[in-house]
Amino acid sequence: MFDFLKKEKTYKMSDWFEIVKPKYSVLHITPDTSNRNYDTELIAKTIANMYRMPYQRIMKEVKNKGFKVVYKLPAKVLFQINITKEDCTFYMVVPKLYKNLFIEKCTETWKRITVKEVDIILMDEKEFNKSLKYQLYYEKEDALSLKVNKKTNDPLNNILNVIDIMEEEDKIDVLYNFIPVNQSKWKGNYKETMKKIQAGFPIDKEKLDFMVILKYIGIAAIKFIDFLFDVFNDVVGDGTPRTHSEIAITSIDKLTNLSNITRRKENAVVLDTQLVVSSVSKDKSRQQNNAFAVLESYKNIGQDNSLQYKKIKNKIKINPTDYEFKGIDKNRMSTLECNNLIQIAGRELLQRFKINTKIDVLEHPIPEELQSGYVYLGTSNYKGKKYEAYMRDEYNFGNLALLLLSPQGGGKTTFIANMCKNANDKRESVIILDYIKNCELANTVKRSVRKEEVIELDLSKKECFQGLGFNEVKSEGEDEFTMFKMANMKAEQTMSFIDAINTDGLPLTSKMRRYLSAAANLVYIHDNTSIGDVIKCLQDFKKRDYYINHINKLSEDGEIYFSDMITTLKELDEIKEEKDKKTKEVISREIVGTKESKIDGILDRVNLIQENIYLKYMFNMKCDNNIDFIKAMDEGKVILIKMPEDSFNNQMVKNVLVTFFTSKIVLATKLRGSLHEKPSRCNVFYDELYQAPTAENVICSVLSQLRKFGTKIIISAHYMNQLIPQLKNEIKASGASYMLLQGADKKNFEELKEEMKPYELEDLLNLKQFHSLNLIKYEKGYAKFITKLPKPLN
Fold first, then answer.
1. Which domains does the chain possess?
2. How many CB atoms are located within 10 Å of the residue 133 CB?
3. Tens of pLDDT along 576-616?
4. What is the pLDDT of residues 153-206, one digit of tens each?
5. Cis peptide before 367 (omega within 30 of 0)
6. Residues 523, 528, 530, 535: what is their CA dihedral angle, to the nearest 10 degrees?
7. How far is the C-alpha of 514 from the C-alpha of 554, rounded, in Å?
8. In whole angstroms, what is the distance from residue 595 CA to residue 600 CA?
9. Of the candidates 176, 155, 134, 87, which has an alpha carbon nearest to the alpha carbon of residue 277?
10. For the chain, what is the total number of helices (H) and then of strands (E)?
């Protein structure tokens, strides 16, 4: 009832039917030095596979209890080369629907490129449409092919030569518009052209106009006259007609001159291709010359067919996202011919023309395990995205050694300062042994960490002197056996230290070691004794007698333990005997000195110490005021041991002191291991360790053990061969990480060639300033990647 009162419902056409244009994504392709354009046909085939018949593009959508018909317009792909005086960039405009597919195909074709989606193509559309533009078109029909040689980069090689004649603000744009087509009619078209060749008809690709019609009338007239001559020849000749085989051979000869690529084009996949070249310049003459330089480059790929060019009228407007460019000829090319067009620059072109937008080095992904942590390695680029990289912070892998290989000015000092800051923020201890120039490294680190955590030992200043002893080892209040064990630990470190003091590089003889070991074990059962006290025990018979007599206060087991050592030390006593003149019997025996000839090897080394005022002073000092390395390491202190080169310019002195402090660190590390199950990490830095060869030996003997006790060794050098071979091999065997900073010697890469794969020497040589090629150990083996080093700290 009252239906007539209801309002009529109206429907829009768009509610039932809609035509949808494809949406496009712009992909920026950044070339790599290893690019090869061998298989770009793969991208062309992918474009061809986008073709859909009209009925396949009709979609039916159910909507609001009704349906809607959607017709999707066909899509294309545009490849663009943008050339300026300073750079050359490559873009692809692809349907959004196929974006990921084309990214995959590009990275499959060019293994190490970066493909990144950008908002817009690098081209001003208004400027482009006002520019001088030319189109390229086939000289002959589509069935005939261009030359294809995958081993060359033609025509790109020649196209980029235009850079040499370009000036600032000049621009060249090369556009290749690829339109997928139905393949079903292609073979028929191909055969028609072949028939024309056999029949002797022209196969120039020309539009049908009055001149072309006139041309064909002329050809027909010539053919007719030729026919009349054949008839006349038959009448007046010998009456023998030409055989069918002769006619066949003549026809075949016309086809055998065609190239293999043309013959294979019959069964090839084809694309409609539009080629446009645009030139922009304030100077009209140069604008024309730049355009001609590019257009002439295509002559190199001419064979059965060739590309000619003609000017595009200004009234023809071109939009890069249009399906096809109106007023521009289409050339039906095989995907193999498209290999000539879809090209990007490789190493030779990138270097020759100094192209800025490129990937100089291989980009490698950062493992997930190294994307978090606290020791920051810097940022790494991979496939157009930035990732932050860190040292592995898992306890065992985080304690493995690190070898920094860098020339001067490579960013080593800044990186170490950042690393120390990271460790200090985590309450880890840091020890810097700096004996280079004015200790710039230690000073930089000092500015980077919390002031209250710094312990600064400037060994050129008297108030910072340290007694040459191992005060970290204390046996007071311990049982007798523990006291002997602690003394023996200090004795071992003393032996290493005395061994380091030499100019000939020879170790102590076994006899010398026996005397030194006996004295050290005897002296070190007393706390706060130093290496100087050990030497006094050897030299001074009264001191020796004092330490020997103290053994009487020990238990019977203690006396037995020391008995052979006492016997050894008594060999050093110089005894004066008084004999009866008549009977010649010994009346009295008195110790009056020491047989120094027995310990001259030890004393020679001690004399070397006495020659240097700093060492002599420290040698005679007590250890009461020494830094306790165990306590400092447990408290996360930053210990800066500075030996300015103007005060410590003697190689032997440096070697002695670095060895002494290394021995203290090793001893403290082992003692911390007995105090804690997992001691907090201590980071020990050595710069140019080769200047302390004996310290290298000390580190070499314990490097694989330090990880268990929480001590991480960081060594910086110019090249690996600066280290002694044993240490170099031990570093590698212990699972150390490596960082090769920009400018590092190529011999470093050769040493790690197998571990660095797939990186090549070129990657190291092409590193940008303040970048590093890293080989970082973690649970799954070695991670290889490049990072931009952290910026200097404020």
1. 22-188+265-352 (3.40.462), 476-623 (no CATH)
2. 22
3. 878 777 777 777 778 889 999 999 999 998 888 888 899 99
4. 999 999 999 999 999 999 999 999 999 999 999 999 999 999 989 888 888 886
5. no
6. -30
7. 22
8. 9
9. 134
10. 29, 25
